[in-house]
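Pasting as-is:
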Amino acid sequence: MNNLEHLFLVGEFPERAYLLSGLSLDLVTLRPDGASHSIYEELWHLVGYQQSIIEPGEPVGEFYPIAAPEHEHEWHDLVRVFLDGARAAAALEQSPERLAVEVEPGVTLADELNSVAVHNAYHFGKIVALRQRIGAWPPTVASGEL
């Protein structure tokens, strides 16, 4: 396992795929009293930032979604985008020359990826706390879900 795989997918706390497993649309759109966001909103925000570094392009615009998803596949699509982006980040470990490129003066792509990993960890902590609050902890993994 390389450092970026550790940071983005499997290290320091349970695998990210596991933390996102076994959730229905009803569960991910719940916002318990006092919570600032739902699980869906937390992951949506996390994905927006991660993708802005992994695949820079047009700015997302909003920090959080303006509407809840209406279909289960929207949740599963978001999880897939997150995991694909995390795998792409981990694969960059194989390109040290690319990691050394300055994306702005004094800041390399490696620096940016470390920031994304910290940001992801923060939001995954919120996702776990939300799962605990709504009684969806520990994750139950459906067959073939991971």
